[in-house]
Amino acid sequence: MAKILIVDDKPSMRKMLKTNLEIEGYEVVVAKSAEQALTLVDKTINLIVSDLRMSEMSGIDFLKVIRKKDLNIPFILMTAYAKVQDAIESMKFGITEFIEKPFEVDFLLYKINQILKVSKFKSDNKMKSFLNKFNEEVNIIGESTAFKKTIKIVEKVSQTNSSVLFYGESGTGKEVFAKYLHYKSNRAKYPLVAINCAAIPSELMEAELFGYEKGAFTGANSTKIGLFEVAKNGTIFLDEIGELPFLMQSKLLRVLQEKEFLRVGGTKAIKTNVRLISATNQDLNELIDKKQFRQDLYFRISVIPIKIPTLSERKEDILLLIDYFISQFSKEFNKPIVTVSEKTKNILLNYKYRGNIRELKNIIERAVILSENNTITTDVLGIKIQDEIIDPQKEEFEELEEFEETTPLQVVTENAIRKAESHHILKVLKSVNWNRTNASKILKVSYKTLLTKIKDYDLKP
Predict the structure, then answer these.
(1) Which residue range forms the structural domain that includes residue 40?
(2) What angle, 0 to 180 degrees and rounded to 10, lies between the N-to-C axes of helices 447-456 and 409-431?
């Protein structure tokens, strides 16, 4: 855990900060003056939190000495006497964050967490290439055509401030792509604040997003900073935005248009400079038709819509993801790196992942825990193999459903025809490398009819 140096001439402030930081798991050292702090600064210190006004040496003078020693330690400066000149001067010497007192402890803790993440990221990049570390940090794994196409779009739009909407099935990794976009952008050194719109009760949503003033309602005993304020100059990620309450949609729209908001119970407009990234697994156009989502908000949040491919659309990445998850869970559960039997690999490659990458991750986690002799075998996968696997090499037909004596003969015939058709069409498509024009000629059906049957039978390469 990171080691933090607290510098403040007030014992009560030192004690309060030390207690709260230690509760969070940080190692904390304290100094009552900048002079004392200079004797404690070494390469083990990961972050300095210092008061501005102190006797003898000020926080800015302390910062100057630190920088003259060529120590690039992240530095937070606290003050109850904020002046523009102080802020400008501290910026000249590489201040990381300038925080006005009084402040919410949660706000400071959030800032510390974000600063340390960025600091660790930069430090690790000295030893690893940027892309490799980046992939490791946000779990971006893939080599498939669909994956590369999506990443190319994300990287291109990352250098803009336009609103982005990620959409696609559940479990495809929309949040991971949102993180990747943020950390590739020029806002990377500022916070990325993720909010699950489905997880926050509608009556609390406004207070969470915009905060509230002391006395705004019963129980509001102090001012609360909202997440839009926490994300200053950074990125707000609204996951499952289709679940955003309708009343809040109009308030969010106003914030995006005016770039300012009011805390609950507040009268002073607070300027905001954040980038909005949203994600959904719902059809927002369908919600618009049902009057459950505002069309004007949809246009605001989806300046750049990006579809995240399903796992079935990036099958070439399955083995890469399996290797990654095995490595991850082997370390977590302190088990030797396990191997995967060939039969198991074949099953995992042909399995229908209804939960996409999230489901694959869960399968591997279970398999690593239950595996024996350092090998993952079919019996520890926890999936219904016969129900889910389509083996393209298998010639014989399996029963589509359990025998029921009341099933009409016509239904049995129709089911058999559908299965025979889909099986034969798939074989022909594979034989011509999925050239649909050639396949339609071989099957002696129109191109349009073939496309309809491919869609109807859900046939995929």
Answers:
(1) 3-105
(2) 110
DSSP, res 42:
S
Q: What's 97's domain CATH number?
A: 3.40.50.2300
Q: Is residue 121 part of a domain?
A: no
333 and 429 assigned to the same domain: no
Residues 85-114 pLDDT 10s: 555 555 656 677 878 888 888 888 888 887
What is the tens place of the pLDDT at every residue in 268-321? 999 999 999 999 999 999 999 999 999 999 999 999 999 999 999 999 999 999
Distance set, CA 19 to CA 1, 36, 126, 304 (Å): 15, 20, 33, 45
For residue 444, CA distances in Å to 178, 374, 441, 449 come to 46, 51, 5, 10
> CB-based contacts of 157: which residues, under 8 Å, 6+ apart?
164, 181, 304, 306
- Can you tell me whether residue 193 is helix, strand or coil? strand
Residue 121, H or E segment: helix 105-124
Backbone angles phi, psi at 261, to 5 degrees: -150, 165
